[in-house]
TrEMBL record:
<dbReference type="InterPro" id="IPR004114">
    <property type="entry name" value="THUMP_dom"/>
</dbReference>
<dbReference type="GO" id="GO:0000049">
    <property type="term" value="F:tRNA binding"/>
</dbReference>
<feature type="binding site">
    <location>
        <position position="259"/>
    </location>
    <ligand>
        <name>substrate</name>
    </ligand>
</feature>
<dbReference type="InterPro" id="IPR005912">
    <property type="entry name" value="Pus10"/>
</dbReference>
<dbReference type="InterPro" id="IPR020103">
    <property type="entry name" value="PsdUridine_synth_cat_dom_sf"/>
</dbReference>
<dbReference type="InterPro" id="IPR039894">
    <property type="entry name" value="Pus10-like"/>
</dbReference>
<keyword id="KW-0694">RNA-binding</keyword>
<comment type="similarity">
    <text>Belongs to the pseudouridine synthase Pus10 family.</text>
</comment>
<feature type="binding site">
    <location>
        <position position="331"/>
    </location>
    <ligand>
        <name>substrate</name>
    </ligand>
</feature>
<feature type="active site" description="Nucleophile">
    <location>
        <position position="195"/>
    </location>
</feature>
<dbReference type="InterPro" id="IPR055174">
    <property type="entry name" value="Pus10_THUMP_arc"/>
</dbReference>
<protein>
    <recommendedName>
        <fullName>tRNA pseudouridine synthase Pus10</fullName>
        <ecNumber>5.4.99.25</ecNumber>
    </recommendedName>
</protein>
<dbReference type="Pfam" id="PF22023">
    <property type="entry name" value="Pus10_THUMP_arc"/>
</dbReference>
<dbReference type="Pfam" id="PF21238">
    <property type="entry name" value="Pus10_C"/>
</dbReference>
<dbReference type="GO" id="GO:0031119">
    <property type="term" value="P:tRNA pseudouridine synthesis"/>
</dbReference>
<keyword id="KW-0819">tRNA processing</keyword>
<feature type="domain" description="THUMP">
    <location>
        <begin position="1"/>
        <end position="126"/>
    </location>
</feature>
Length: 376
């Protein structure tokens, strides 16, 4: 054991070995004596980023990992491995020198040091911003929709934009925020999605914007709201900072939605027969196979969703306006048309005539877990 050459600091870690100069240390190669310099490198790398919390990580590989395993076999306490010492000491030095706080749960920046390669890498925690959006016009997708023909490269079919739709709710909301945060990208996570040709009105759809690699974290959300709303196409409200748990809630939580649909029938429809058909559908469980129109991009499943209420707002000749309240995830167009028998029961099936939605608006999205709308 006395032939193993380690520096004074590693001698304290391992509990054995002959003390040599740091640069000749078999274990750390002098790294433990250069943590002040390493802290300066990190500070310099992150000079353009706003952050208050951090966490040090250490990746051990290659020959260093083999040496470490050898030392453990000789009796070194596993708690004293080099990576733990680097994390402890480097974290202490960096915190004291630059006034940043260690956060083991959700640090603004995670700093990864690889002593084998003397490399630093960084994971910048995204900003998460909750809000509600209203889409005032039709034929705008919720998220960026890449052209299926060119896969985003640009072609004649997409007018060389690389996108199927020129604008998206995601871009209108994300672009101003990405600019304010000096971020890499913005990703919209919505509580469900409306069809491209449907509007989102009422109190708006809950969403979380994930702001990727922000350099500025303390952005002015009121300013962001004004910038977004200036588009007059999409408006947002209730913006506030949140965390990734809210995304899981939006995707997995229990929601109910209210719609307004303009429906055209295959013949003139009488008010009394339409009211009777709507009453027949109330409080019914709908068995809905993935609609034909989305089957190319959705799993072919049978979903069971409940219709809670239907109200006739207007009827004249072969056209009616109907308000529908249902579980989230029910395809309203197919509830009306039946989708060639893939949705049962349907309004078309009950009436025995063709029925199709010409226009659709989403009016409200409710959070059933709290029995309140998320903005309240």
């Amino acid at each position: 054991m006395t032939e193993i050459e380690v520096c004074e600091k590693c001698r304290r870690l391992t509990g054995f070995g002959r003390v040599v100069e740091p640069e000749n240390c078999l274990y750390c190669s002098g790294i433990l004596w250069k943590l002040d310099e390493l802290a300066e490198r990190i500070h310099s790398d992150l000079i353009d980023y706003e952050y208050s919390t951090f966490l040090i990580g250490c990746r051990v590989e290659g020959s260093l990992k083999a040496i470490e395993e050898y030392f453990i076999e000789l009796g070194m306490d596993e708690k004293n491995v080099l990576k733990n010492e680097i994390k402890r000491e480097l974290g202490r030095i960096f915190s004291e020198r630059y006034g940043k706080r260690v956060d083991f749960e959700k640090p603004d920046v995670t700093i990864i040091f690889n002593p084998e390669r003397d490399e630093l890498s960084y994971q910048i925690r995204p900003l998460y911003i909750y809000g509600r959006y209203r889409k005032r016009v039709r034929n705008i997708s919720q998220t960026r929709w890449i052209c299926g023909r060119c896969r985003g490269k640009g072609c004649e079919e997409c007018n060389f934009t690389g996108k199927k739709y020129y604008l998206s709710v995601e871009e209108i909301i994300a672009n101003p925020v990405v600019s304010l945060a000096k971020a890499k990208n913005g990703i919209l996570h919505g509580s469900g999605r409306e069809d491209v040709d449907a509007r989102m009105l009422g109190n708006g759809r809950p969403f979380v914007l994930e702001v990727v690699e922000p350099k500025v974290r303390s952005i002015d959300l009121e300013q962001a709201e004004r910038m977004i709303n200036s588009s007059r196409i999409v408006s947002v409200s209730d913006l506030k900072f949140t965390d990734e748990e809210m995304i899981r809630h939006l995707k997995m939580g229990a929601f109910r939605k209210r719609y307004r649909a303009k429906v055209r029938f295959g013949r003139k429809i009488e008010e009394h027969e339409l009211v009777a058909a709507l009453n027949n559908l109330k409080n019914r469980t709908i068995h809905q196979r993935t609609p034909e129109r989305v089957s190319h991009r959705r799993a072919d499943l049978v979903r069971n969703r409940r219709v809670h209420d239907l109200k006739l707002l207007h009827v004249k000749d072969d056209v009616a306006v109907i308000e529908i309240e249902s579980d989230a995830g029910l395809y309203i167009k197919e509830l009306v048309s039946g989708d060639n028998g893939r949705t049962r029961p349907s309004l078309s099936e009950i009436l025995g005539i063709e029925a199709r939605v010409e226009k659709l608006d989403v009016l409200d999205v409710y959070d059933l877990e709290s029995q309140n709308k998320l903005s309240e």
